[in-house]
Design a protein that fits this description.
Elements: H1 6-15, H2 32-36, H3 50-53, E1 65-72, E2 78-88, E3 91-108, E4 114-132, E5 137-149, E6 152-167, E7 170-179, E8 183-185, E9 188-190, E10 195-203, E11 209-217, E12 222-234, E13 237-244, H4 247-250, H5 257-260, E14 261-268, E15 272-280, E16 286-295
Antiparallel strand pairs: 1-2, 1-16, 2-3, 3-4, 4-5, 5-6, 6-7, 7-10, 8-9, 10-11, 11-12, 12-13, 13-14, 14-15, 15-16
Length: 296
């Protein structure tokens, strides 16, 4: 086991966590703007990335929007996310794709000797809808999930639901993510990473914002906290910072401020946005996220 490559261990961990959850790639946040603020985005969500964080945020869109984000993580692992949102007079429609690629992984037998390598990847295809009601903005999405490692493959479906409401400069939001029957590899079925997120944000004059949220895994994954904000340094240029206790990001346990710190910056105007964030990855160092958004 000591000879098993780190990448192979990460593959296994991504499918069965300590809380007996699988498809944990669904727990990896998307969009450099949100991640630069520690992932405290359930209340602030107001762009095409809302399809992941809180589908109710799609109702805020007034223009069609396309977003693409890329993450260089570790051991040739890459996460890509694409989403398109289309506002109509009856609400906003959206579609998205999440793809985690882990490349070719070297196999080892019980004695540590090299064997044939294998591939591993995870994907989720999503479709969402949101609209404004008198009392709140509400939204929902469904997704088809496929995961494979070597010759083994599993498929399932899941749903997300969310709501948001504004009280002046204060916004509150909640979302239930990854509600579904789980993935079954061979004879074993494991639960998806079901998450209940609730947060609040305050929008300051001048384009500044601060947000905080709690994310609970009701199937035994515990509760994580996140907070962060963005500051408009000059017109269209934003600086961001945040903190998260999410172990899937920070890697490890115990209180270590440096491990949970996130930083980011972005440029945004009426037609497009470009964002960057750097996140902790525990003993593996830090990962970098890039996002591009286009509105038309």
């Amino acid at each position: 086991m000591r000879a098993l490559p780190l990448a192979a261990l990460l593959v296994l961990a991504s499918r069965v966590s300590w809380a007996a959850e699988t498809a944990s790639f669904l727990d990896i946040g998307v969009g450099a703007r949100a991640l630069g603020m520690g992932g405290a985005y359930t209340a602030l969500a107001d762009d095409a990335n809302s399809l992941y964080w809180n589908p109710a945020g799609l109702a805020k869109l007034e223009k069609r929007e396309f977003t693409a984000s890329h993450a260089e993580m570790f051991e040739s692992t890459r996460l890509d996310f694409l989403a398109y949102a289309h506002p109509t007079s009856h609400g906003t429609l959206s579609a998205g794709l999440t793809y985690l690629s882990q490349g070719k992984i070297e196999g080892r037998d019980s004695l540590g000797r090299p064997t044939a390598g294998f591939d591993a990847s995870d994907a989720a295809v999503s479709a969402g809808y949101a609209r404004k009601l008198e009392f709140a903005e509400v939204g929902a999405s469904v997704k088809y999930i496929r995961s494979h490692i070597g010759s083994a493959e599993a498929q399932t479906v899941a749903a997300d639901v969310g709501a948001k409401r504004e009280f002046g400069n204060v916004v509150v939001g909640a979302a239930l993510r990854n509600l579904g029957p789980g993935l079954k590899f061979q004879d074993q079925r494991n639960d998806l990473p079901l998450r209940l997120a609730a947060g609040a944000a305050y929008k300051f004059a001048g384009g500044h914002a601060a947000a905080v949220e709690l994310v609970n895994g009701p199937r035994g994954a515990g509760t994580d906290a996140a907070f962060g904000g963005e500051f408009q340094a000059v017109k269209n240029l934003y600086l961001r910072a945040g903190y998260t206790t999410q172990t899937a990001i920070t890697g490890g346990s115990g209180f270590d401020v440096a491990r949970g710190l996130t930083l980011g910056l972005g440029f945004r105007n009426e037609k497009w946005s470009l964002d960057y964030a750097v996140l902790p990855s525990g003993e593996l160092g830090r990962s970098h996220r890039f996002s591009l958004g286009v509105r038309f």
